[in-house]
Amino acid sequence: MKRTTLPALAAASLLTLLAACGGGGDAGGTTSQGAPQVDGTFTMNLGSDPGSVNPYKSTGGINRQVYAFAYDTLVGRGADGNAVPQLATSWEVKGDSVTYTLGQAATCDDGQKLKPSDIEADFNYIKDPKTLSPWVALSVPVDYTVSSDDTAGTFTITSKKPFGSLLQGAGAVPIVCPAGLKDPDSIEHASAGTGPFKITNYVSGDHYEFERRDGYTWGPAGASTSTPGVPKKVSIAFVANESTMANQLVSGQINAAQITGPDRARLDKTPGVQRFDVPVIVGEINFNEAAGRLFNDEQLRQAAASSVNRDDLAPVSTANQGTLATNLIAEAPVACPGDETTGALPTFDVAKASSILDAAGWTKGADGTRTKDGKALTVKVIYQTGAPQTASAVELLGQQLKAAGIGSDLVGLTNAAFLESLYTTADFDIFYSAINVEFPYMATTFFGGATPADGGRNSGDIRNPQFEELSAQAAAAPADEACPLWTKAHQELFKRADVIPVSNGDRPFYTAKATLQTVGLFAVPTSIRLSQ
Amino acid sequence: MSATTLEPAGPLPAPAVDRAARRTRRPWVRFVASRVLRLVVSLLVLVTATFVMVHLIPGDPVQAALGEQATPQLVELRRHELGLDQPLPLQYVHYLRGVVTGDLGSSIVTEAPVADLLGTRFPNTLRLALPAFVLVILIALPLGLLTAVRTRGGRGRVTRGVFVNVTGFFNSVPDYVMATVLSVIFVVGLRLFPAAGLSGPSSYVLPVAALVVGPAASLSRIVRVEALKVLDTEYVRAAKSRRLPRRLLYLRHVLPNMMTASLTFGAMILSGLVAGTVLVENVFGWPGVGTVISQAVIQKDFPLVQGVLLVLGAAVLLLNMLVDVMLGVLDPRSRIGGLE
């Protein structure tokens, strides 16, 4: 044997040996679901480390997904959007009060039985101004009092003014056990909940590990951890690169990841990889109506809205994978489904846009941009960088505005810079983004009320009295009567061109050798099933 | 008339020969001291530059870290806890004090101490960079030397052509592109190796390969050029005329004499590898400082960005200093600059 071939053979052998040592994944998947895998480990990737998983410190998307594994809520949400039993097995809505009757089986992960008085303590905790919990503003945005009866097993919440979504709102607050409430620092990276899993390990910037709680039977609609296929362990790792996550799915290294970018195309074609949709609003045009800004003038907003061709913009903004938005809310199950935009949003009509601007004294210059009294009609459009389709959509939006003579300065920003523009500097005329919430009442703070300067979230400084009045009526109405009012309220926003929903898209979960269900933006932990 | 004598006002200065003798008695002290001083000054510039650079990144990291639904009061409280409501010069002084005492602050997003995070992550980065460096040397030195021997004196035109073109190609491919290509072939296509993470020996193969290819190609070209020069020297011809065995000739006479330039370039490569792992780590989800810093920059988690830049920069500076010292050992001529 020649000497030169020996090193080559040695290298090949070494490579093969090393390949056998590690997780190379299976050689190819199948489309059919295999038999349930007993006591397996479910691995899921998310984009970044949420840091603290103390449920009362943050309502951010990744935080909620992680702590959903360890904490329960009073009620869950069924596929039809209605409340389903979870910690509460039944409830009674009477006027401005909701009384939840707790099941007897729920225990904390330290073995202590969960009592109604523990829940009372939680609700008093989150409304204490000192805790600054965002849950109050998100889920129960009205002043309330709580009481409990440990003997009867009931917890009651009473709002001080009518709030028709009290059952769902209060029912969505994660319940922290006494050990965690007593020492909030202890649950920064550990758990003190009643959920189906318990946090067992955390490596900063890398992953969280969970272990199944055997004997758990109080999941949404009676889900339990004894069902075949429920994993024994869960590992949630943080990988920023979606292509890497997609490679891990394809190679079988992980079971689930949420992929929103171009890698979806190849995952959709990969045998053995399944997709679970998470509908969201993807594109939305929001105007800055603050005094001194161009779009403080409703006529200018109408002109801009009339120059927007949503039929062209929607496919670009979703890379041809979405649809035209017809509702202000897209999270499934949509609380008030139906077309809210037809007849309310200004229709695409460049001639109308031009005539509005002509009448307002804006004359077209040589470069096509209109001017008035020496001032150019140029608007600053900000958007978050990351998704290539967003940049394309904003570019198209700029061209559409230009057709009517409205110039634009398109500014892509990182998430941190984008939020600073929205909530601190307010230096923008249009922000192209999407506000996704579960219930209509959660959106009211973004389209009305206090501005960020005054402690609110109304970045566009929208002052729409009809919207605010109708929203107040809808929020106060019983949940099953509120939808027509919410629809009218949203239409008031569209008529005044305060906001233009553009497109619905998807933030799907892809899985390999696993299935799950999603509600809202999140995967439901008790729905996870591993297969062989 | 009295004779005038000139007497010195004080003790006579030592003769020039004595001053030079003192310098040459302790040449190493001055040489090493000058390098250490340079390192300290460079570190101070690095600390200041990272602080300034990071604060130029636009955005509000606290709002981004806490999320859109965080109350303004919570955002202000967190800003105050982090000292971000203080004037920038004061923040710089606190930061400098922290660096000296080993307190690099806490991540705005995860609230984990930066020093702890780096303590966990940096060794993982070295786990890629150091084996990659060793492999670069093990590949580049024999490859460059062998090619030089075969192409000396205008011989082996085909060999030379193949060598130049292949190494030129691999030298021009960025390491993150190489990483992506390797992923596509060996992970997605052949499923031979894991896609990401640190999970056993096989998880090292692709990231290290991605790091090695370009620098090995680049260094082998340098080695070939240096080897060609050395092979043409009189002492090598003299050694050949004494019919020394080839192995002895190359290892004893050729290799040591081409090490100076190769070592310098090799140090640059190692510095580049440490920094270059940033992109490769992101492709392979490797739990090193690279994956940490890319997210930290986007989130403007500046304590983390500052900490990582400081550690990486300090590592590169330290490496350069060590190489200077090693060059001083190998080639005394390089110490003359330090003495003067």
On the 0-100 scale, what is the average pLDDT of chain A? 90
What is the percent of helical residues of chain B? over 70%
Extended strand count of chain A: 26
Radius of gyration of chain A (CA) equals 26 Å
Termini of chain A, distance in Å? 45 Å
Strand proportion of chain A, as a percent range, falls in: 15-25%
Structural class of chain B: mainly alpha
Most extensive chain-chain interface: A-B, 57 and 58 residues
Mean pLDDT of chain B: 83
Shape of chain A: globular
The secondary-structure class of chain A comes to: alpha+beta
Note the total helix count of chain B: 15
Q: Characterize the largest beta sheet of chain B: strand count, sense, and whether it forms a barrel.
A: none
What does this structure look like?
The complex is a heterodimer of chains A (532) and B (340). Chain A is an alpha+beta fold. Chain A is built from 16 helices and 26 strands. In chain A, the strands form 7 sheets. A 7-stranded mixed beta sheet of chain A has the order 8-9-10-1-11-22-12, with helices on one face. A 6-stranded mixed beta sheet of chain A has the order 14-21-13-20-18-19. In chain A, a hairpin with a 3-residue loop joins strand 8 and strand 9. The model of chain A is unreliable at 1-32 (pLDDT under 50). In chain B, helix 6 packs across helix 12 (259-284). Mean pLDDT of chain B is 83; it is low at 1-5. Chain B is built from 15 helices and no strands. Helix content of chain B is 76%, strand content 0%. The longest helix of chain B is centred in the middle third of the chain and has 38 residues, at 114-151. At the A-B interface, helix 1, helix 7 and helix 13 of A face helix 3, helix 4, helix 6, helix 8 and helix 9 of B.
